[in-house]
Amino acid sequence: GRLIDLCEPVHRRYQIAITKVLGKNMDAIVVDSEQCGRDCIQYMKEQRSEPSTFIPLDTIQVKPTNEKLRNLGGSAKLVIDVIRYDPPQIKKALQYACGNSLVCDTMEEARKLCFSGTERHKAVALDGTLFSKSGIISGGASDIKRKAKRWDEKAVDGLKRSRDRYLEELKELNITRRKEPELNNLTSQINGLETRLKYSKRDRDSSIDQTMAEYNKEAATIENELEDLRPVLKNLENQIDDRSLKIDENQDKLNVVEDKVFKDFCKNLGIDNIRQYEEKQLSKQQEKAKKRLEFANHQSKLQSQLDFEKRRNTKGQVKKYEDQLIADEAALTELEDEEKVQLESIERTQTALTEAIDERESFKGECEETEIELKEIKKILS
Q: Which residues contact 75 (CB under 8 A, 6 or more apart)?
């Protein structure tokens, strides 16, 4: 970039003196290499731009700074020491443009440094009067003062750019701050869901405990009834066995009588006895009756189960609460993730806003100082 854009006086009272020393190099363009400078010149020729001076950092020859000049006393200082520059790499270009030039508060002190000692030094006064080693003296003409105002203009332009940048950042921060109501709404929703989740868990646990207690009580009652019925069942089984023996004896006697009665009938049909006939003829009816009975039993069982479930639908309630609990937990997890993202965004926004406010206050102070200095310059010029 141009040398004037890469450096500035440490104090505005040195503006005229630095402008005088830099001379035409003030608008020189600093480049990294000679090849880069050649390329720029070629491009400017093609674009028919005005001629410019280039300072290549890799090929310029500069004299080392004379450290003794820093200890001359009085108000004398090396010009390069009253210049603030960035980046550090351009120091070589400033050494090329300034050399070992000195700046003094008064013209008399600059004249003495240049001519009174055994060794002459290039010196410039704050009013722009330059004393060269060759004996040439040039004063601070109005053109130099006009060029020196470019330092103030540069500072003001920089402050304006900073102001515009900070205003844009502040506008973005204000937009971001509008998300706070949304975050508060999400927080309220999360709190509501947490409350619902707590009550749902409590209702589920209460319902499960109550249902299990009823089941355990009913199972214990049934077990006691079974214990009481076991002796009666044993007695009935013994009676059934005795009657089965008597029935078998009577059935044998009945079979003998039936064989005598249906002897001719069975002979005509080609069967051994009437019981075979009865078994063949009645087997289908028995099978139908059996199926009809099984169907009736199954229907009765289903009806009883249906009535029981209608009276006690605890499983449905538990399933309902579990589904509600799962849905609430999923919604809570989603809202917690969203809350985390919003909190991080708000924290970054708050930090950026604080920094922007601090920078704005600093910028405001600098603007006020600049305005005061501009007023002083106007008073001097008038």
A: 104, 105, 106, 109
Between the alpha carbon of residue 136 and those of residues 82, 115, 130, 143, 222, the distances in Å are: 24, 11, 8, 18, 128
Q: Is 130 helix (H, G, I), strand (E, B) or coil?
A: strand
The gap from C-alpha 231 to its chain's centroid, in whole angstroms, comes to 76
Per-residue pLDDT tens over the stretch 125-143: 888 888 888 888 887 566 6
Residues forming beta bridges with residue 31, ordered by sequence position:
56
CA distance 250 to 243: 10
The rounded mean pLDDT for the chain is 80
Confidence of residue 243 (pLDDT cuts 50, 70, 90): confident
Q: How far apart are CA 67 and CA 86, in angstroms?
A: 22
Q: Which residues pair with 8 in a beta bridge?
A: 84
Kindly tell me the burial class for residue 47, based on how many C-beta atoms sit within 10 Å of its own C-beta (0-12, 13-18, 19 or more): exposed
Helix or strand (DSSP H, E) at 118:
none
- The answer on pLDDT for 260 being more than 80 is no
Cα distances (angstroms) measured from residue 346 to each of 177, 343, 357:
7, 5, 16
**pLDDT value of position 196:** 86
* pLDDT band of 59, cuts 50, 70, 90: confident
**H-assigned helices in 1-98:** 3-6, 15-22, 34-46, 91-98
Global pTM reads 0.43
8 Å CB contact between 19 and 128: yes
Q: Are strands 123-125 and 130-131 parallel, antiparallel or unpaired?
A: antiparallel
Can you read off the two tokens belonging to residue 275? 């019981």
